[in-house]
Amino acid sequence: MAINKFDIYSFWKDKAITNIFEVKNYADCKEKEEAFPVIEFSDDICCWACGLPSWIISDEKISELDDLEKDWNNEKSLQKAHILAKSLGGPETVNNLFLLCPTCHAESPDTREITDFFAWVYYKRKNENYITIMYKELERACKMKNIDIQIVIDYFSSIDYDKQMNLRHRIIKNCSVHGSFVSISSKMMALLSVILKDISKEIGKH
Ligand SMILES: [Zn+2]
After folding, report:
1. What range(s) does the HNH domain occupy (predicted)?
2. What is the distance in A from the centroid of ligand 1 to the CA of 90?
3. How do the domains of the chain map onto residue ranges?
4. What is the DSSP string of 62-118?
5. SS3 label, residue 69
6. pLDDT digits (tens, 9 = 90+) for 80-96
7. How many angstroms separate the alpha carbon of residue 48 from the centre of ligand 1?
């Protein structure tokens, strides 16, 4: 029987990665090992490298979390990534599979050394949380389109939750989908276009 994502979660839920990129039980880690638990909260379904929440990937409403197994197995969210690549003989076993968002899955290393994979995860966890990445992408998109990022920051601080959700829908409508996944640069470019439209409407009113 094929391994599902809940099986993978069940194996990894008490594991951690140490600063020399070893996988251990989190409970056995010493402070000097500066270990990261692979999963921080069992019901917080997010990419195990960048922390991107699953509901952003799958564009679904956050469930009531009454069925953990169903939530982890949601087909549209995290992807099963091989730690040692299939092409290098990596097996289809829970200890060789890891759950990642589509962006991290594409970026993760495929080498013969499995410590390379864990070194990459450790670095991502420490330095490249999805919020940092999104901010950098937003900055980059602003430069491409000659927009002052401060205008975008001010805009975000001025809108409420309903407006944010409305913004999300308009961004999704403005992006064309490559496969099942919208690239972060498309999202950021679309986001800027939508914001600029809103801002120019506001200016028009005055
Ligand atoms: Zn990720």
Report:
1. 76-106
2. 21
3. 5-127, 130-205
4. PP--S-HHHHHH-TTS-EEEESS-GGGT--SSGGGEEEE-HHHHHHS---S-HHHHH
5. helix
6. 999 999 999 999 999 99
7. 7
